[in-house]
Structures are given as structure tokens and as C-alpha cells.
Design goal:
membrane, alpha/beta, Rossmann fold, methyltransferase, S-adenosyl-L-methionine, single chain, binds S-adenosylmethionine, 8 helices, 2 domains, Adenine nucleotide translocase lysine methyltransferase, transmembrane helix
């Protein structure tokens, strides 16, 4: 077997002592950048390749109190429920337990989707809730009566546009941790990081508010919901790409 002789040791010592130089610095920077990107794309944000960077929101689970606040704001309502960016599916599961049907979560991260289905199975609700691998910016919300979102403040202005364009009159949106910047909530629950805000979509369109169940529709005060995206949102998202 080859043994490292004194020549090899001298070579290594020379290499270690040699100044890095611009090329070396560039190589280290590129290597570090690649590693960071690999962790971001492969571990933290898998499934987000097609989502513009500015719209990528990492996973952070809602606290128990936050989930309780979301459910408190939905009290008295019924019908379908959607969590936009459902993470490990905890809010969808709670909505199902509170009688919302269908209860659906849209999520892009395949690991979180697996975890959601496992959690549903563990809670005895497998097959009764849906976790779908869909980009929340591309799904149509035209049939959603009860919507919850816990996303980064940076994407909320754009999400306002999508929600106003697509949701039916009578829909209620609950925002967890971060409120919508330009909307007026009809109710607020909790405080600090667990706070949640409820909004009647019709009030954000300038129409009359509607309480009660998520069933029926109030008289139309706008031209009706658009299919996924709506023209304005599609223009904005395509500019980000
Ligand atoms: C802050 S976490 C909230 C998770 C969950 N709603 C909760 O409250 O525990 C945001 C989630 O949205 C997901 N997400 C972000 N952008 C998305 C997109 N364009 N389509 C689907 N899911 C998305 C992320 O993967 C992440 O799991």
C-alpha cells in the first residue's frame, strides 16, 4: 500500500499556505451558493420550482392557540373549507372536526403532503379530508366559502387581488398571524403571534357584509368571480416570473 511520503506532506503544506486568490474565492462562493440553493430547493422548498421566488413562502406551523383562534372566527359557519398552503394539514383537520365539508388543503411541498395524510390517518380521518398538490396561485377559488391563510406578509397584497377576484359573495377569509394590509376585518381573535383576523369578502368589494353560514349567496354586487387567477392576477404573477 502507498504511504504518504515527506514529498506529499510538503505539497499539502504548500497548498494550505498558498493565498486563495480571486479564483479560489470565486470557487468557494459558488460552492457555498450551490449548497444553500440545494438545501432551499431540495429540503426546505421542494415542489416550488415553478413558483416565482417572491411568492415562495416557507413552512411554519400554526400554533395550537392560532388554530383555536381561526376556528373561533369560523363559528356559526358551515360548508366547504380551504386552507391555502396547508403545511402539515392541522387547520384542515380541525375544520373537518368542526363540521366543514369538504375540507381541503392546497400544498406544494410533497413531504408536508405526506405528513398531512399521515396525520389525518392517525386522527382517524383518512379519506375524509383532502390534501392536494396544487399551487395556491393557480387554483380556482370560485366555490370556496371559508378560506384560511397563514402566509408571509410580502405575498398578502397580491393574494388580496386573487381573493377579491375569485371568491363568491358571502365567503369569509381568515388570516393567521399577519393581517391583510388593505382590508378591514369584521372580527379579530387572540393577540400577538397567535392573532387571527376574519374578513367578509363582500365588504372588501364595497358590498354589504354577510354573516351566518357559508351557504347561500348575497345579491351580486360585482360581475361575479373569475376563474383561477383573474386577468389582473395573471398579469402580475407572469411579471414576477
Ligand atoms: C406559514 S406555512 C402555514 C402552514 C399551515 N397553513 C399552518 O397554518 O400550519 C405556509 C405554507 O404554505 C405553503 N405554500 C407556500 N406557497 C404555496 C403555493 N404557492 N402553493 C401551495 N402551498 C404553498 C408552504 O409550503 C407552507 O407549508
Amino acid at each position: 500500500m502507498d504511504q504518504d511520503g515527506p514529498e506529499t506532506e510538503v505539497g499539502l503544506a504548500e497548498f494550505m499556505e498558498r493565498p486563495l486568490g480571486p479564483w479560489g474565492v470565486l470557487q468557494i462562493a459558488a460552492g457555498t451558493g450551490l449548497s444553500v440553493y440545494a438545501v432551499w430547493a431540495g429540503v426546505l422548498m421542494p415542489g416550488f420550482r415553478r413558483v416565482p421566488l417572491k411568492l415562495q413562502v416557507p413552512y411554519l406551523p400554526a400554533s395550537r392557540t392560532q388554530v383555536r383562534n381561526v376556528m373561533a372566527l369560523l363559528k356559526g359557519r358551515s360548508g366547504g373549507f380551504v386552507d391555502l398552503g396547508s403545511g402539515d394539514g392541522r387547520i384542515v383537520l380541525q375544520a373537518h372536526s368542526h363540521g366543514f365539508h369538504p375540507a381541503v388543503g392546497y400544498e406544494l411541498n410533497p413531504w408536508l403532503l405526506r405528513l398531512s395524510r399521515f396525520n389525518a390517518w392517525r386522527a382517524g380521518h383518512y379519506g375524509q379530508v383532502s390534501y392536494l398538490k396544487k399551487d395556491l396561485w393557480k387554483v380556482s377559488l370560485a366555490d370556496c366559502k371559508n378560506v384560511s391563510v397563514f402566509l408571509a406578509p410580502s405575498v398578502l397584497p397580491l393574494l388580496q387581488v386573487k381573493l377579491v377576484a375569485e371568491l363568491p359573495d358571502g365567503a369569509v377569509v381568515i388570516a393567521g398571524r399577519f393581517p391583510f394590509p388593505d382590508w378591514t376585518p369584521c372580527k379579530v381573535e387572540g393577540e400577538g403571534v397567535d392573532q387571527a383576523w376574519a374578513y367578509y369578502i363582500q365588504a372588501q368589494r364595497g358590498g354589504p357584509e354577510r354573516g351566518g353560514s357559508g351557504g347561500g349567496r348575497a345579491p351580486d354586487t360585482h360581475s361575479g368571480p373569475h376563474p383561477a387567477g383573474g386577468p389582473l392576477l395573471l398579469r402580475v404573477v407572469s411579471k414576477l416570473q
